[in-house]
From TrEMBL:
Residues 85-190, 197-305 form the Gnk2-homologous domain. Gene3D superfamilies: Gnk2 domain, C-X8-C-X2-C motif (3.30.430.20). The chain crosses the membrane at residues 57-75. It comes from Lactuca saligna (Willowleaf lettuce). This is Gnk2-homologous domain-containing protein.
Amino acid sequence: MENEKSSSPSGNEWNKDLSRLLTVNTYISLINRQVNTYISINFSNSISPLSPPQESMFMLARILLLWFSIIFMYLNNTITLAEAKFISSQCEIAANDTRNSTYQRNVENTLSGLLNTNSGYGFFNFSVGQGNDRVYSIALCRGDVESDLCQSCLNDSIVQLRENCREYRYSKAAVIFYDICLLQYSNEYILGNPRTNKNPLFEWNILNATDQSRFNGSPGPLLKRLTADAAAGGPLLKFAAGNTSGPDFSTIYGLVQCTPYLSEAQCTACLDNSINTFAREYYTGSSTGRGLLPTCNFRYETYKFFNMSTLVIPSPSLGSPSFQPPPGNIYMYSYHR
């Protein structure tokens, strides 16, 4: 039996980032109109050209407005990218009471030590204990997330997991998803074990659903190309993001990622199965969508939600980069073995 908690069953959370950006743009436009109105009121009745002091004031007002707009948009974008939003958690109830047991102590020791095992590219893998009391754990941060934000997200996920699974705290296994990270522990070996890979968690925006057939014409091909690029990555990073042209002159942005221990075939299969299931059973024309598994995930939006400038690229000595020029832009920072 599992206990699952999700932050947004209605799908409304999907518009928050976009709404905030639109709010900023609206606010800046309003300020611009107010400044222009002020300038018009003060100078439209003047029968003579602007005097040098008035011209200086006019230019200063416009320059200050421009700088304020740039700074405000930068800060808002930084905040948006830096927010680690909780999405969902699943807690498996143990068949037997494990309170005060060796296994439970190993769970706590695993969660305490996991974050010290960073591969350098946002992947963590740690285990504690022997035999039936052994606890396995993994954690993964999104490929474009800086290390300090990754660490913060995983710290939050440990706290949130304990809170969400309070009544099931002594379970044998649990997984938690945030917008930019995930964490999982289990009494079974996790790496490459299909039994520890939960059913996909899908989210989409039901408010702007239009036409199911559009998937094959916009997000579908983009996610397929990104899947090939990410799957070709080496043992440190399997991640790709990019964009393509969408319907009605829109731009579709997509991102896919696999846990780096997967083989190319395993990563491809994980993403293909998840994306195909989403397209077949859940997609109704929504301009936003997401699929989450402990071993792979995908997401697409009509605005740029990733930050490629922060990505740490694996050393070229690990292999040669794989770039395939498709329509639109593919920001592919994964490497062949």
